[in-house]
């Protein structure tokens, strides 16, 4: 048959069938690839790529450099912390690949700032990049502004159903975390420029731990955002971070809290380097779970229901946040008891801070018990998580404001 006699409509139908077949095949191939990615049964180490190993090698090289140059100034516990931190960061980078660029950027900016200082703290006021970008105060101010802007764009993305708004909010959050960690690293160095007897890890007062709280809460949120492929929760989680930023700004202006001060005797201990960060991983996770609880309550009542993740996803994020926070808060409480025994001669003295820490621990222990043993779900769990934020906030801040005791060095 002469092909020229075939009608155009027949050719079109034939082409359409071929196109549909290609689409089906491509979809099947994509599905097979996804299934392979999700159910790759090879051992974890066998799944690592060359880039993964180069990343690990770079971190190990950095750890070796730090040890070889500064081991004479390190106590045995500093060496232990360094030895544990390097493999922990390697595994984090393997499991959560976006964190690699963050680690590298923090290192580059922090080392760059240290090089600009040239051992002279006065350069923070005379050098452009230090004065407006990389000194600890400048970097933390950038962090604060970026978190507020990120909150705005996350809400724009949620309310306007704007992919662009959510994407901008996410990127601003990443940059805020970068500037915040850079600020803390540079502040650590600045404390030693003031004096060798002044130098300390920047987790010693409310100003520094509020910065740490913002960073930890944001990092946990960014992980869950990537894991669950949703940006709808950013609008809620960034609210509590912006509230912390607001307190940080007020505290800085009214108390001049951004100034680096020598440690009080009770804080001159290596326990502080591990107790405080573990504590604030707990606080950050509990705060995140509370804001997810708010989203759960709104969705359950039909508000923003079509814009938020499913109730099952919200419930899962809430549970995982509380579980992680409880684990670290338990570790921090044990470490705090060991520190108290060394500093005050007893593991537990029913100091107001200790008492409220126990109340926080019991609250989330009960939540997890009801979840695992009684199947706690739904609105009750969400309201309980939200109430937990009030309990945690009082333990974190209210005790310092209204009560006195052995921890009175932390009063506002």
Task: Quickly list its features.
mainly alpha; 0% strand; 412 residues; disordered N terminus; single chain
Strand residue percentage: under 5%
Report the span from N to C terminus. Answer: 94 Å
- The total of helices stands at 14
Label the structural class: mainly alpha
Quaternary structure state of the chains depicted: single chain
Describe this structure as you would to a colleague.
With 412 residues, the protein is mainly α. Among the domains are: 122-263, no CATH class; 268-412. It has 14 helices and no strands. The chain has helices at residues 8-38, 50-70, 76-95, 98-117, 123-126, 128-134, 136-159, 163-194, 206-228, 234-255, 272-300, 311-344, 352-374, 378-402. Helix 7 (136-159) packs antiparallel against helix 10 (234-255), helix 8 (163-194) packs antiparallel against helix 9 and helix 12 runs antiparallel to helix 13. The protein starts with 7 loop residues before the first helix and ends in a 10-residue tail after the last helix.
């Amino acid at each position: 048959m002469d092909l020229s006699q075939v009608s155009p409509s027949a050719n079109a139908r034939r082409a359409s069938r071929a196109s549909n077949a290609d689409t089906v095949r491509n979809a099947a191939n994509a599905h097979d690839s996804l299934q392979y990615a999700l159910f790759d049964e090879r051992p974890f180490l066998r799944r690592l790529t060359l880039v993964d190993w180069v990343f690990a090698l770079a971190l190990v090289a950095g750890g070796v450099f730090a040890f070889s140059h500064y081991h004479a100034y390190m106590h045995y516990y500093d060496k232990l912390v360094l030895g544990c931190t390097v493999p922990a960061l390697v595994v984090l980078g393997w499991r959560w690949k976006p964190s690699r660029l963050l680690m590298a950027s923090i290192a580059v900016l922090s080392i760059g700032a240290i090089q600009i200082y040239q051992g002279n703290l006065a350069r923070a006021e005379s050098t452009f990049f230090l004065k407006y970008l990389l000194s600890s105060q400048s970097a933390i101010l950038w962090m604060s502004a970026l978190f507020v802007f990120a909150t705005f764009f996350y809400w724009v993305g949620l309310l306007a159903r704007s992919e662009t708004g959510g994407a901008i909010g996410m990127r601003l959050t990443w940059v805020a975390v970068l500037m915040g960690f850079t600020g803390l690293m540079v502040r650590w160095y600045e404390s030693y420029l003031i004096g060798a007897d002044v130098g300390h890890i920047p987790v010693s007062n409310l100003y520094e731990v509020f910065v740490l709280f913002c960073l930890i809460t944001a990092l946990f949120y960014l992980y869950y955002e990537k894991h669950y492929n949703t940006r709808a929760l950013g609008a809620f989680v960034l609210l509590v971070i912006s509230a912390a930023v607001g307190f940080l700004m007020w505290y800085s202006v009214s108390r001049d809290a951004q100034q680096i001060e020598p440690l009080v005797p009770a804080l001159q201990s290596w326990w502080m380097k591990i107790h405080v960060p573990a504590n604030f991983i707990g606080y950050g996770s509990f705060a995140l779970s509370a804001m997810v609880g708010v989203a759960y309550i709104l969705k359950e009542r039909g508000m923003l229901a079509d814009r938020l993740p499913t109730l099952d996803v919200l419930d899962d994020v809430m549970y995982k946040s509380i579980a992680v926070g409880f684990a670290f808060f338990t570790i921090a409480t044990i470490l705090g008891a060991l520190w108290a025994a060394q500093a005050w001669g007893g593991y537990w003295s029913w100091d107001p801070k200790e008492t409220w820490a126990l109340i926080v621990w019991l609250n989330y222990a009960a939540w997890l018990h009801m979840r695992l043993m009684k199947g706690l779900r739904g609105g009750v769990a969400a309201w309980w998580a939200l109430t937990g934020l009030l309990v945690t906030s009082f333990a974190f801040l209210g005790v310092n404001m209204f009560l006195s005791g052995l921890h009175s060095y932390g009063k506002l």
